[in-house]
Amino acid sequence: MKKFTVLIVIMFILSSIRAQNLTEIYSGPGIIDDIAITNDGAIYSVGEKIIIIKNGQTFEYWPPVELFSVFPISANEAWAVGNSAILHYNGSSWSSLTNPAGGCLYRVWGIDGNIYITGRNGTTSFLLKLVSGSFVKKAEEANSLFLGMNGYSSEEIFIAGSYTDTVDLIERPAIYIWDGDTAVYRHITFYNYPNLEGMSFNQTAKTFTTNTSGAYDYAMTITDHYFGGNDLVYHQFWGWYPISAYSGIARSVCSSPDGLTFMANGNGIYMVNSDSIGQSYQTLLTEQNCFDVEYFNNEVYILVDRTTIKKFDLNITLIDEFRPKPKSESTGLTEFYNLSGQKISGLNKNLPAGIYLKKTGNKVEKIHYLGE
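^ Secretion system C-terminal sorting domain-containing protein, sequence as received from the core. Prediction below:
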């Protein structure tokens, strides 16, 4: 039995239809390490310089050190960290805050009005929290590396990273959970994961879905500190599972509100459905050396070559056959296409689960095909 659910019904009235809509948003000198999109559509990026694109204008700032992570709250407020620096943006300028733990700061993230930072001093990682205008150390763990954070509340935060065994001295991917107070514990270490010695989890994303147990799901990329590795790991309530069929170097992961997970790697952008994750994936974009990916309003923002920001529109990935016919010419015939605009024979057992386009007469709708 074929299983699919309708996600969005869209009436396409297009004057120009292209097979692939990839738009360059920004390109310039200087290394970019992280990009982020606000709910009001502003674009932030940090690295050797800070770039803010909002209200049709581009603003550039040069920080005192290279920054590795940015967390924007809105077009007029953001946090950024890197090396030992903590910076805050108030809509017009950046100011510096004290780092109470020293060492190197890797990621900044927030939820429920709280701001958190991960970092490491020597071989001990720590978690900072903004309290009454200053950052304080809330937890630390020896022989560890804390990197990306995510969660559904400030009472339970997942931290992607690694753990170095004190016996064999091998660094392995690990997942930590902070309880929202002072305790952080190693949730799982992947001892038997193939070809991953010396690597760590880099980034974690919520999939915005719940499984049958009511527990939330997560996806994480596996990478080393210098962008190595090639897997996406997915959590379901019964355990963690890899999706290792990708070609390239896994670097970043993000998710959409309708259950899509996107992964950036050295060859492009890959897309996985929350309902079939662990089984199959779709290639969304190829021949792009991608370092970061962010989703906003049915558009995928991509960091290419650590110098260029591009935007891929998921709506405009059609070919001329999708040009609507006058109603009098509509036959009502149902046809199926993939997101690259290629016509397919239909939804069958040989087709990977994923997002496809179903065209019936003048009506085009996205369908979420779960496979057979």
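The chain has two domains: 1-21+317-372, 22-313.
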